[in-house]
Hints:
Elements: H1 14-20, H2 22-37, H3 55-72, H4 100-103, H5 109-138, H6 142-153, H7 156-159, H8 165-168, H9 171-183, E1 186-187, E2 191-192, H10 199-214, H11 217-245, H12 253-283, H13 291-296, H14 319-322, H15 328-331, H16 337-346, H17 354-370, H18 384-390, H19 404-429, H20 435-442, H21 446-455, E3 479-482, H22 488-496, H23 515-523, H24 530-539, E4 543-546, E5 570-574, E6 577-581
Parallel strand pairs: 3-4
Antiparallel strand pairs: 1-2, 4-6, 5-6
Helix pairs in contact: 2-5, 3-5, 3-22, 5-6, 5-9, 5-19, 6-19, 6-21, 9-10, 10-11, 10-12, 16-19, 16-21, 17-19
Amino acid sequence: METxxxxxxAARPPxxxxxxxxWTLAVLGALFxxxxxxxxxxxxxxxxxxxxxxxxxxxxxxxAWGGHVLLTDPVQLWHSNTFFPERYTYxxxxxxxxxxxxxxxxxxxxxxxxxxxxLYVLLHALAFIGAYALVRQLGAGRxxxxxxxxxxxxxxxxxxxSGHLNILSAGGIALCLAMLARGHGWSLRHGYRPERRRPGxxxxxxxxxxxxxxxxxxxxxxxxxxxxxxxxxxxxxYGWSWWRRKQRPAFGRRLFLADLAGGALFGAVTLGIAVAxxxxxxxxxxxxxxxxxxxxxxxxxxxxxxxxxESWLWGDRHAATRDQLVWPPEMALLPGVTLIALAAAxxxxxxxxxxxxVALAAGVIGTGLLALGSNLGADGDPGYLTLSKHLPGWDAxxxxxxxxxxxxxxxxxxxxxxITATAxxxxxxxxxxxxxRQRAVQAVLLIPLALxxxxxxxxxxxxxxxxxxxxxxxxxxxxxxxxxxAGAFELNVMLWTTEGGFPRVANGLAGFVPxxxxxTRAITAFFPDPASVAYLRDLGVRTVLVxxxxxxxxxWEGVAERPVDGLGVTREEVDGxxxxxxx
Length: 583
């Protein structure tokens, strides 16, 4: 009798295995959720921008300038084309330098807008991936990772920062922590496992941390101090184990070298950027911010559970409470009702050990109290103001509420522990059930995921960005655009310079006013007259562009009617805009 030989089932093709891989699904899911929850950002990316036409236009220019100058003249990186003739003007605010590679793609005004809108969506996806990777490394399950990723990347408080790309770009924080933990073979559930050390992952974690800091010190500086503190604690723990056991714990030469090289690179990037900021303060002593700024932006306790107006679910419901806040964009700090509930449950039911839950809860309370700024206790000292007085650079972090970034991340870790423990319990109870019944019960885990998704729905404005005037390509640099009144229009002008190869302009807006700009605004209030024309010529300005429809209510309101006879100045009108050529 002939036997029939059974053949093993054909192996699935590599592409199919790749598409089914956890991290492929995580990345694709992150991109999909980011597009949906930031909609309509990608509806008209060449003409609109999320938030408003102030800070987002500044940041679109920053990204474009970083890419342009690194391709053309890297030596001039810090000396941008704005605030002419000042120096180190690129460091007048968080630079977003880490996005410079994106700024190398495309050129011009529309390209700057498209680039910004794409990054706006992608940074939300990166925040999801970073949080997902972190909680997975710490020991949470996939559903717990998904809930943590959505809850952190699309937390209600982040909706108030739709115009602050530097604050939203926090994905590198969670991602670098996940990489460093993986590289050192450490997790919350299993502790330190020397056999799982991966020096390459540790080095990559330091690289991501350096990239995160290069996006700005607004949220990068707390990461610097956190990593320093973590390093000190880890070294102390290592030393204690050595002394207690009378033998050296396993660490590894390769891991040590990876930490040494990665840490050195991280430190070099941090110090390099810090030097530029120090130069700004050296040249402009009045640029240094006092603690009065911190006191102004310190939220009350109720701010921690108040949602911003941009929240679709909570915005109207919290309107009355929000009216009590002096500056809602920096004081409406709700991390998410679902997230708080899951984290609170995580203190009792969790896949993490009790001592770790207590440590996470302490971190939540500590960072939450720091977020209150000067409203903690009598005057914020001890508290956020203590850090401002004693940690170099911390006094420049004038908005304590941004500590919610760390509070919400710790809450997300606690919440992931809750979901993971629940999933484990469900699997144990349904063991032996039929697959359909198992899936039906496991679907309960999708409820918290759906709730955090709903809390992340936005109603962010997407205004149309003013385009450069028709005369823009006909100008001889350096240029002064009037009115120059320290309003959002200054930021629009900065973005306009992406058209035409970044011509130098005397316009710009920052947290302080450089002396030369203040003098220019005062003298040109009477433009065109002999004094202002002579001053601008001595300064180096060759063209003055006047926007008549924007002059109403400004010191330059009568400029269009003033004669130019005998000044050696030519004037022409181009599509409703006046162009003065100083010769």
